[in-house]
Write a structure and sequence with these properties.
It contains eleven helices and 13 strands. The protein is an alpha/beta fold. The chain is elongated and about 70 Å long.
């Protein structure tokens, strides 16, 4: 069986002539209804149609008057990001290359599992972190995604998977990980707005317990994330000394290990049922020795934690090789014998470059003059 690739016709999406309701929060819906001169309760109905039922047309909103539906259609859309390329791996993993209104592109990935499915969501076009083992890090930051573009990835995935009306226990999209392109905490306001919409129990209704935000270590915003959103935290650790982490995760030069681990220890809500996931990519002869496994245990001592070992996923021009299966087994065994849950992530979607650390689009940063010209 070969990977499937579908390329959309028509090129990148045109700039919209009307704003989309996708990405608006409850206050935004209230403002829309007020602008149209309708009673406040209509905002709740509209919210339900957009986020609970995933309506693609205002004509579907049968409990709204024809007059209101016409006014909505005249002034707004229900657009999500457009699928430019739709790929399916031999293992069932899906990757969507999404075209945005300004011509930028971003990727989202769906990983199917037994009785669940996880959507990997991007927060930026490109990335500033330049982690040496990450393909996304070789792409310059173009811009942050706005809340509509973050929420839109979730809605588009639900559209494509056909899960809006399925019972919760049968849905193919049950979990969200903010582990796609970009550093979520460098786009905190937009990510937070989007996740509040996703978590709203009268809307998309994905529990905060099923949402994980991954950060490379933006220390000042870690506590705020826990206090305001209450989602699970994953930390891209990948090294146990400042010297090595400075090299492979350069944000460590700004927020070294001591500061990062202090922020982890004080993350709101930690306990026996809620743990921080420390992600650790396995790089052959770089960070995978038994001594480094023992130092990892010392660093996370006292933190409710689980360790996610990630076999390195190669990409063209990457400077590293993956640790051998035996090396990973020994490393995991040391961690497990110390009482920590240590999972070895099964690589998914490698054949379509959808695995961890492989996401990258062709979007390049535009000059300010180009952006101004495009806006005319």
């Amino acid at each position: 069986m070969e990977a499937e690739i579908q390329i959309a016709d028509g090129g990148p999406p045109a700039a919209p002539d009307r704003p989309s309701l996708v990405g608006l929060d409850r206050e935004g819906f209230a403002a829309v209804v007020e602008t149209l001169g309708k009673k406040p309760f209509r905002a709740k109905q509209l919210w339900s149609w957009v986020y609970r039922r995933g309506a693609r047309s205002f004509d579907e909103m049968t409990n709204l008057s024809k007059e209101l539906r016409a006014a909505l259609a005249e002034n707004y859309t229900l657009d999500r990001p457009a699928v430019t390329v739709n790929q399916r791996s031999t293992d069932g993993t899906r990757k969507w290359l999404l075209g945005l209104a300004d011509g930028s592109q971003v990727e989202a990935v769906h990983i199917p599992e037994a009785r669940r499915g996880t959507l990997c969501v991007s927060s930026q076009v490109g990335c500033t972190l330049s982690c040496r083992f990450c393909h996304t890090g070789t792409q310059r930051l173009v811009r942050n995604l706005d809340a509509a573009e973050v929420v839109g990835q979730v809605m588009l995935a639900r559209d494509d998977l056909g899960v809006w009306t399925a019972p919760d226990e049968e849905r193919d999209l049950t979990n969200i990980v903010m582990m796609g392109m970009g550093e979520p905490l460098y786009n905190y306001d937009n990510v937070a707005k989007a996740l509040r919409i996703v978590m709203d129990p009268e809307g998309i209704a994905i529990s905060k317990r099923r949402i994980t935000l991954s950060t490379a270590g933006v220390v000042p915003l870690i506590e705020r994330c826990g206090a305001e959103l209450g989602v699970n935290l994953a930390v891209s650790l990948h090294a146990v000394t400042d010297e090595l982490r400075d090299e492979i995760v350069p944000i460590n030069r700004k927020y070294p290990l001591d500061e990062l681990l202090h922020a982890c220890r004080t993350y709101p809500g930690l306990g026996t049922t809620r743990r921080i996931t420390f992600e650790y990519v396995m790089l052959r002869d770089v960070n995978d020795s038994p001594a480094e496994a023992r130092e990892l245990l010392r660093l996370v001592s006292g933190i409710p934690a689980k360790i996610n070992l990630i076999p390195f996923n190669p990409w063209p021009g990457s400077p590293y090789d993956c640790s051998t299966p035996e090396t990973i087994r020994i490393f995991a065994g040391i961690v497990e014998r110390a009482g920590y849950v240590s999972t070895v992530r099964t690589p998914r979607g490698r054949d379509i470059f959808a695995a961890c650390g492989q996401l990258k689009t062709v979007t390049e940063k535009q000059r300010a003059s180009e952006r101004r010209a495009a806006a005319l």
